[in-house]
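Listing S7. Sequence submitted for prediction.
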Amino acid sequence: MRSIFERAVAGWALLGGAILVAIVLVTTANVGAFGLDKLARPFGGTVSGLPGYEDFVRLAISAAALMFFPYCQLKRGHIAVDILARKSSPAVQRAFDVVSLSLTALLAAFLGYWMLLGMAETYADGALSRVLGWPEWPFYLPGAVSLFLWTAVAATQLFLKDRNVRA
């Protein structure tokens, strides 16, 4: 069961990476179009940039930005006060781990709750992107899923027998 969960979290991060690759490709195409426009202007030609580029990047990055958080938590890659913890006794280290994992799970759940409220409000408002006219509410879904996955990872780590095991 744990293996399936870990693969789901890793797959979610890979999907976030694929979205970032798409952003890089679209950005490269847009910059290339601007470069071609500079070359074509002396000859009376024009090459336009990609219409809606800013809309796409804004919405895609809002979807992808949080998709790495659950994987970082799974690998225990988030910032911790290791300098203080290393010099403490094992009991203090365990207590610090319990407190930090509890707070992380609560924070991620809290943010996920507010993400869902924001998505509902955006849906109710009928908010559309300025140029492309895409509805904005679906781009909240990956963020909400990411935050609840992050909550699940931190909560799972909280209840593991050996909390210091890095998956």
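Caption to Listing S7: primary sequence and predicted structure tokens for the chain studied. The radius of gyration is 21 Å. The chain has one domain: 2-158.
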